[in-house]
Write a structure and sequence with these properties.
This protein is an alpha/beta fold. It has two domains: 45 residues, no CATH class; 242 residues, TIM Barrel, CATH 3.20.20.70. The chain contains eight helices and 17 strands. The strands form four sheets. The chain has an eight-stranded mixed β-sheet. The radius of gyration is 20 Å and the shape is globular. The relative contact order is 0.12.
């Protein structure tokens, strides 16, 4: 058992958790919406500290992060659980844990061991990913601090439901984040994720202002978030935060409880790329589909291809530091 951070007493042995924007008030003996934080006698405990359910070495492009340490590998870890209930989740077997999960049956891994494994694998970063890293924030921050002491960077792959207090705690420890912006309506978030849109938009702004390298991913779900109005809204929002923020436009494939839906038409992805350009975004990419456009990073000044990609496993980088070698334009790409 590990005492949580980001909570305060609410009287009568209840606690208020302010780690994520559900802001759960948790009675004694109960768990929060994420089901991995439990109140015991007025003390909030994180049940998943060190309980890793996944550990892999991934190319950083798989996160996806295209403009942060391109061509490097990330030691990727996850504990069970999530603070969303997306019915189209691709990792639902490990993210959608139940109240009956016995976390103490999962082998315990100290933060130091994660860092050692990342070093052994020659990874430049540790990625907190697969499920939702917010719900194991204490473990992630403890690991990140040790990683930085060894020269290893840290990134989150997140739904963006962190509170401002949590983002403040991440500042200086987490260098990059890919944030899921799942749709641009409150209705979608409420009905498909049991969450809300506004806090995610706030988190994207807060992370960017905190100096965290931010990229955004939208899984385009047919009939749900694929209208031109929604896609344009997302593109314009991102451009308003910064036109240099990367937007990853991903193709949906049926999974979990959404097997009745069809894969995203390629024409929709192409239109999203057009809307990104119209909104002023300098870099937008498509994922989960093989199509020639939306793969490579081009210099927005001269059009020279500075990063050419072939899926997750192959990329050729033609940069002078972080500048275009053809025209000298500095690009918002964090290089090793």
């Amino acid at each position: 058992m590990h005492e949580a951070r980001f909570y305060r007493s609410a009287g009568d042995s209840k606690v208020d958790c302010f780690l994520c924007n559900h802001h759960c008030t948790i009675a004694d003996g109960k768990r929060g919406f994420c089901m991995v934080r439990e109140n015991q006698g007025g003390t909030l405990y994180t049940l998943t500290y060190g309980r890793l359910i996944a550990q892999h070495v991934d190319p950083i492009e798989k996160k996806p992060l295209y403009h942060w340490l391109p061509g490097s590998t990330a030691y990727s870890i996850a504990t069970p659980g999530c603070n969303f209930r997306c019915d189209f989740c691709q990792n639902w077997r490990i993210s959608q844990t139940s109240l009956d999960t016995q976390f103490d049956r999962i082998a315990y891994t100290e933060p130091e061991e994660v860092v050692r494994e990342a070093e052994r694998a020659g990874c430049d970063s540790i990625s907190y990913t697969y499920t939702e890293p917010t719900i194991f924030m204490e473990y992630a921050l403890d690991t990140a601090e040790l990683a930085l002491e060894r020269g290893i960077q840290n990134c989150f792959v997140t739904n963006g439901y962190e509170t401002p207090e949590a983002v403040e705690a991440m500042e200086g420890l987490i260098q990059a984040a890919n944030v899921d912006l799942k749709a641009f309506t409150e209705e979608f978030y409420r009905n498909r994720s049991q969450a809300a849109l506004a806090p995610v938009l706030e988190t994207i702004r807060n992370m960017h202002e905190a100096g965290i390298h931010v990229e955004v991913t939208t899984l385009v779900v047919p009939g749900q978030n694929d209208t031109e109005e929604q896609l344009r809204g997302i593109a314009e929002f991102i451009a308003d935060v910064s036109p240099d923020i990367v937007w990853h436009i991903s193709r949906f494939h049926p999974d979990y409880k959404a097997n009745d839906l069809s894969p995203t038409p390629v024409s929709t992805l192409r239109r999203a790329l057009e809307l990104a350009k119209e909104a002023g975004l300098r870099h937008a990419f498509v994922g989960n589909v093989a199509m020639p456009e939306g793969q490579n990073t081009e210099c927005p000044n001269c059009g020279h291809v500075v990063i050419r990609r072939q899926g997750f496993m192959g990329s050729s980088i033609d940069l002078d530091g972080n500048a275009c070698p053809n025209c000298g334009t500095e690009l918002p790409i964090v290089v090793k």
